[in-house]
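Lecture 7 notes: from sequence to structure.

We start with a single chain of 864 residues. Read the sequence below before looking at the structure.
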Amino acid sequence: MFVRVVVLSPVYRRDGEEPLFDYHLPEELAGRVQVGSLVTVPFRTRPLYAVVVERPEQPAVAETRPVASLVDPEPVVTPAQLELARWMSRETLAPLHECLLLMLPPGIVGQADMRLALAPDAAGRGDVHIARTRGDAPVAPTRGDARVAPISPLERHLMDLLRRRGPLTGAQIDRAFPRTDWRSAVERLVRLGVLTRTPILTPPRAHPRQVITALLLPGADVEAGLRGLRSPLYRAVVEFLRAEGKPVDVSWVYARTGCNRSHLNRLEERGLIALGMEERWRDPLEGKVFLPTGPLPLTPDQEAAWAEIRPAICNLQSAIFLLHGVTCSGKTELYLRAVAEVLAQGRKAIVLVPEISLTPQTVARFAGRFPGRVTVIHSQLTEGQRYDVWRQARAGRVDVVIGPRSALFTPLSPLGLIVLDEEHDASYKQQLRPAYHAREAALELARQTGATVILGSATPSLESYLRAQRGEFHLLTLGRRILGHARRLADLQTVYHIPQLSYRPLREGPPQARYLPLPPVTVVDMRAELRAGNRSIFSRLLQGVLDEALERGEQAILFLNRRGRATCVLCRGCGYVARCPHCDTPLTLHGDAGARRAPPLLICHYCGHREPPPSDCPHCGGRRIRHFGLGTEGLEAAVRERWPQARTLRWDRDTARTADVHWSILQQFSDGRADVLIGTQMIAKGLDLPLVTVVGVISADTALNLPDFRAAERTFQLLEQVAGRAGRGLQGGRVVVQTYHPDHYAIRAVEHHNYEEFAREELGFRRRVDYPPYVRMARLLYFNRDPRRAEVAAHNLAERLRAGLAREGLPPTDLIGPAPAFFARIRGRYRWQLILRHADPPAFLRAVGVPMGWHVDVDPVSVL
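Now the structure, written as tokens:
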């Protein structure tokens, strides 16, 4: 019996393709290994992990080696996931093994490592080495002669370590010599015969969690067993275990009774209890309580959309719906209905959100509707939690998985529904290899499994919108903002002491339903503010609106898509700008703001470099160092200065780095413990904040003029999404957008909440210049610490690509570049890029051949 595997390590043919390898199954593994199984195989002189991708009748080679072991008794990749990985490899030009690794939880695959030991006769050789380095009588060195070759201090320390502790793995030596290039020293000592090196595979780090349990033995003579035990803790333990009636984690026994392990050991010795081991799942939602909810009556718009979605799910059609619904129009209720329909058929559902910050709110809604059937997965869970969620999904113990793009690879079967909320969001595109887009991967997975796909957004991507216009997707529209039902609104009015409401009843549909118009948007021309003598970052209108809202005890959001206190530190004497030594970007000033009074620091947002801000100019020695630009820290300080009575919260990457912190900030603001929420794009995505009546956009221009063809689309989407945070509650709301480009069509479209107007203008521009979505694109990026090498590599590949275009009769203008990237150097590496336009970029690039070292991004969401 034979298997064909892909090894989970970089292995390439000379043509750059990733090969597959054939092995035979030893007798003890026959019948146990399947397609999708994780195995270890001998590969050249070392063992490697591999995934079985085929079961050929005959091998492609004359002689095969045996599979070494089966790592997991169950397949780790489903057939649909295997096909998805193959598709991703073709479309992204990434190795198949990297695409397969996306499907696996961290820690399930061990690492290739080495075991190092002193050679049997190394002691004598080592003495000669050490004597030579101490400066004893010199001996003329001879090539390859270990007795006379001098050793370095690092090599001597390595030998001493191995002499003291015996054989060690590479990981252990890494811990002993952190941030040290010890591998070159090992290479030399192995070559000299002083050390022996054996390739090994470390076992998987991920394991089921085993806990010690205690159980009161049935029929045990408790009184006789407790006789002579003076401490009352023994009886307390027995009574507690009697009440539980099942094995109990000993940590819970300790917490409830105050005993310790010695008490349990004594009770076990006397035959009263049994101590054992039991597997316990690590549940990321453990301890969280969700309020149960039921289905809500649908509005006419929702009814019309549901009338199209439901038959597709019931008929097991792999249909794709683009649900274009304004903010607060009831998209989530349709997601919930669709999930309920799928679960009723015995199938599973995946719900994707673009950011971890949205996960807690989404989980609360779905867990309240489907108690005990929902789980969550994202990168900030512990390795053990992610492993257990993956195992539970594989075992069929969960029905709904919620999370960012990586949740798409959870092994749910049979899969019936995939939801992408905020489908337009750039976070769905992975920037590292494999550079896949979760939307396209979801569509392919749906084709493999027959699942239905719902793409939801108030501002759909132009790619999805055009595909819906062409009939590839079913376009569904929700054009009205739903506030709620009259009885619930009356209760909320009493709770929040609101004297007057701003809703109206629907003319048709459920008689109790109420809706609000979208919040009015006022665009303020900041050029006119300057001419009027207002040099504040707050326009006069925004100041007045905030004054009124704070006086009424209402909440406000201020949006600025930049972090930090100041975005540039400049000398007004000579023009010096503080820049990152590793990146071609100015350093951002952080700190010295707010109640924490953090010390000021200059920070690079690309490599993390930090340094104290200069008091004198390092270039001219002058003292005219000034801070320019504004970030969320500076905005927070300005709010506290202008409205000292206001309670502020800041929500950006500096204040919220974990899912728990995201949840905490959202909860504080939702509970009314702050008046003004200041934040970046995190606050613009799908959050339901019903007490917010004012949204202020401090600068609508931060991304509008970037040299990226998607700049206008990103600006419109971001502004329309953040505007949607206003007026979602009982009191309505308004939006103030400050800009220096009030006549730009993206800004005008936001002012009128007119997505169709924006799409018409932007698609017309894209068609004229032949940009996506009318043509596909690939971005090829090269990094090198030597700027000359980066430039030469870019020009060489450009010549090869132009020759390929000429062979197909395509114009040379379909290749843009080579040129330095917008950020020409990041983390000390110079960046050159090429932009290719082609009907099928992956096929063209495979035919032409892309040299090793290039990063290929097909259908990029950014070309900066």
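Confidence is low (pLDDT under 50) at residues 126-148. Keep this in mind for problem set 3.
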